[in-house]
Specification:
binds 3,4-dihydroxyphenylalanine; elongated; 11 helices; 9 strands; two-stranded antiparallel sheet; seven-stranded mixed β-sheet; 2 domains; alpha+beta; 344 residues; BirA Bifunctional Protein, domain 2; 40% helix
């Protein structure tokens, strides 16, 4: 048994010293010292030895195991050192190499414009309407009737409004003004509300018109609210939005749900004179409609027009963004061309 052990030791040491690398080395260790390895299989014969021999041979087996282990460790450390220095030599870090360009995503210009508008009005005490009070799929009642549109108003025509096949009176809203009615139905004055969202109109698409666009609706309802308050709020809005006092003009107009009504224009910033495609040569761009809430609308939601008065306004988000960023075609907002979007 002693010779067997000596033989094992010599084989093991020779294999370790001739091993090719770290993996090879691990295998050799398992082969000799592992639980099912060669040393253990020899040691299993110990039980057949005489009592005098057992401790001697046992001690020898342990000594051999230790020696193999030690040789293994030395060789292992040697391989390890070599592999590290090889790595250090080959994997050089060149800090002068150009970086790996990762383009940043950014907010869509319509999203950031809406956020900016909402932020300005929030600064003046307006609060954002709850989503459920501003649905995009709406009944004719909230989109038209409750807003004092007569039954035969041309805007209700199929050519202007998208009707659905789901129910006869279910439409895609053509304006965000529905939020006014839904809010006033649910809440009592005083109210100061702002409500952004998508609206839909059945129109020929052009550089100025799209079937889908965005509006921000707002209104204020309280005792003693006047047209002067409306002017003050909207002038302050344009001042903040355009970053300077930009000329505006209040033009008399008509909306079924306001009396008196006005359209507010802001001076065209891309104006190329007579042939200007943005403002059709007028020098002005309409950005919003507004007015004092019609007494009929207030009565419809059980608000006494003798006690309360209010103003309302609705603005086109695309219009405002086009002015602010000098964009001459509304379709650019919807084409998802990164060359356009990445400028924002
Ligand atoms: N809803 C109108 C439109 O889409 C805009 C508007 C005008 C909203 C006057 C208002 C308002 O709240 O008072 O053209």
């Amino acid at each position: 048994m002693k010779t067997k052990l000596e033989e094992l030791k010599n084989n093991a040491l020779a294999e370790i010293n001739n091993s090719a690398g770290l993996e090879d080395l691990q295998e050799i260790k398992i082969k000799y010292l592992g639980r099912k390895g060669e040393l253990n299989s020899i040691k299993r014969g110990l039980k057949d030895l005489s009592d005098a021999e057992k401790p001697l041979i046992g001690a020898l087996a342990n000594e051999i195991a230790e020696e193999i282990e030690k040789t293994f460790e030395i060789k292992y450390a040697d391989f390890y050192r070599k592999s590290v220095s090889k790595k250090l030599e080959t994997e050089k870090l060149d800090i002068t190499m150009p970086g790996d360009y990762k383009p940043y995503g950014s907010q869509h210009p319509l999203t950031s414009t809406i956020n900016e508008i909402v932020y300005i009005f929030q600064g003046m005490g307006f609060s954002l309407v709850e989503n459920q009070n501003s649905p995009e799929v709406e009944t004719e009642y909230y989109n038209f009737d409750a807003l004092n549109f007569p039954a035969d108003h041309p805007a209700k025509d199929m050519q202007d409004t998208f009707y659905t096949v789901n129910a006869p009176n279910l439409i895609l809203r053509s304006q965000t003004s529905n939020a006014q009615i839904r809010e006033m139905e649910k809440k009592n004055p005083p109210l100061r509300v702002i409500s952004p969202g998508r609206v839909y109109r059945s129109e020929a698409v052009s550089s100025r018109k799209n079937n889908l666009f965005h509006q921000v609706e707002g209104f204020m309802l309280d005792k003693n609210v006047t047209f002067g308050d409306l002017k003050g709020v909207l002038n302050e809005f344009t001042r903040q939005f355009f970053g300077q006092a930009r000329p505006t003009r209040f033009r008399t107009s008509f909306f079924p749900f306001t009396e008196p009504s006005a359209e507010i224009d802001v001076q065209c910033i891309m104006c190329s004179g007579k042939g200007c495609r943005t403002c059709s040569g007028t020098g002005w761009l309409e950005i919003l409609g507004a007015g004092m809430i019609d007494p009929n609308v207030l009565k419809g939601v059980n608000v006494d027009p003798e006690v309360y008065s209010g103003f309302a306004f609705g603005m086109g988000v695309e219009r405002l963004a086009m002015l602010k960023y000098a964009i001459n075609d509304i379709r650019l907002f919807f084409n998802n061309d990164v060359r356009f979007l990445e400028q924002f």
